[in-house]
Design a protein that fits this description.
Methylamine Dehydrogenase, Chain H, four-stranded antiparallel beta sheet, five-stranded antiparallel beta sheet, disordered N terminus
């Protein structure tokens, strides 16, 4: 899944991290279980080890540059959403510049989402089941389940409107469903073996699930319920919706849940961790969470004063740790495999934006030269699996306003 730490071999992504569908940046000044820690290398946050990698097609001092493999996706523009730990890559492409089509890549074989006019994948499990947000013609978007054998299940049926919030290893899908005929009225639900289960009790008229990862392998779901006029984080567990109360009655926003049942929650003071036993940890301020670890922690960025540029960072029990860049002032982490390997992008001292992996605390520039295409002008990595296979996108601008974007894979497992 989109960067999460599901139990190895059984979860939707194995021992990894799941990329948040929506950015969570909350709070003003606090820390979770500690303070901001210095960069993990001996250098400052704006320098890389090894130093000097400034070309997408160049070598990396002290080690080999991982070279990209074109996934062979149709169309002139393609991008990646995620990779499962079983090696299933999902993404989308466009062959007409208007509509997007979902694709699934497995060991060199491309499948294209059939039937729908427009489709975009949101999540994938290790079995290769893909949750799709798509439509026929000009209909509103609604969720579909694309099975490994190519069949497509319409989760809400004709006329249904909604959005998926993730899939677990059992094929259960968390959904936000629009009440028929009532724009703006929604309820959180789980689709399980062909049956749609509404999560909120009758007294809660409005609820939504979080963007992926909204559901874990135990079937626990998080999101937001409207209690009176207050947005309140919830977790659906053991067949009941539990609400997160705050002493001052302020808002709480359920953003993600991991395999331990910990819920990451946005509050006015920052992001907090809501434990299964009801305890709530201290707030972390101004941390932009892009992916959450299934066994705890998150990756993303912080934006310190005075420049407020994003700096790559990870969050764990020690607090927030800044990661080195490739020599430039900024970067972001988009995904993690839960084994000390993170991916995203980083700037160089020359102003290039390069796809980047962080391996044992070092920033490693990922290659951008594709045979028959050329050298990319920029790119980023979105996700990485337990074997160290990173996936992402390279952007090529061969002439004027024309451009090509290619979905690619880098093998990091053999990188020293």
């Amino acid at each position: 899944m989109r960067s999460s730490t599901r139990g190895a071999g059984s979860g939707a992504t194995g021992e990894r991290g799941r990329a948040a569908g929506a950015l969570l940046v909350v709070g003003v000044a606090a820390a979770l279980l500690g303070t901001v820690v210095a960069p993990s290398s001996a250098s400052s946050a704006s320098s890389a080890e090894p130093e000097g990698a400034s070309q997408l097609d160049g070598g990396h001092r002290g080690g080999r540059t991982p070279h990209p493999v074109d996934l062979g996706v149709p169309g002139e523009t393609s991008d990646v959403v995620a990779v499962s730990d079983s090696g299933v890559v999902i993404g989308s492409y466009s062959d007409d510049g208007v509509h997007t089509r979902a694709f699934r890549w497995r060991e060199g074989v491309i499948d294209v989402m059939p039937g729908l006019t427009s489709s975009r994948p949101e999540d994938v499990n290790d079995a290769g089941q893909v949750v799709i947000n798509g439509r026929y013609g000009d209909e509103p978007l609604r969720p579909f389940l694309w099975q490994p054998d190519g069949t497509v299940v319409d989760l809400l049926g004709p006329g249904g409107v909604g959005n998926p919030g993730g899939i677990n290893s059992r094929g259960d899908v968390a959904l936000t469903v629009q009440v028929p005929g009532q724009d703006g009225q929604h309820y959180a639900a789980v689709w399980q073996d062909g049956v749609l289960h509404r999560l909120a009790p009758p007294e809660i008229a409005f609820s939504v699930v979080a963007d992926a990862p909204a559901i874990n392998d135990r079937g626990e779901v998080t999101g937001i319920a409207m209690v009176g006029t207050t947005q309140t984080a919830f977790v659906w567990r053991d067949g009941a919706m539990h609400l997160m109360d705050t002493p001052d009655g302020g808002y709480t926003l359920g953003a993600a849940i991991n395999e331990r049942g910990q819920v990451y929650v946005g509050t006015p003071d920052g992001m907090v961790v809501w434990e299964p036993d009801g305890r709530v940890g201290p707030a972390v301020a101004e941390f932009g969470a892009m992916a959450f670890g299934d066994r705890g922690g998150a990756v993303g960025f912080v934006s310190p004063a005075p420049t407020f540029r994003p700096v790559p960072a990870v969050l764990d029990r020690r607090g927030v740790t800044l990661l080195p860049t490739l020599g430039g002032p900024d970067g972001q982490v988009y995904g993690t495999n839960g084994r000390g390997m993170h991916v995203g992008w980083s700037a160089t001292a020359q102003g290039e934006l390069l796809p980047t992996a962080w391996v044992r605390g070092r920033a490693v520039a990922l290659g951008g030269r594709l045979r028959g295409v050329g050298t990319a002008s920029e790119g980023w990595a979105r996700d990485v699996d337990a074997r160290g296979r990173a996936v992402g996108m390279l952007h090529f601008a061969p002439g004027g306003e024309d451009y090509v974007e290619r979905a690619v894979l880098w093998e990091l497992g053999r990188h020293p």
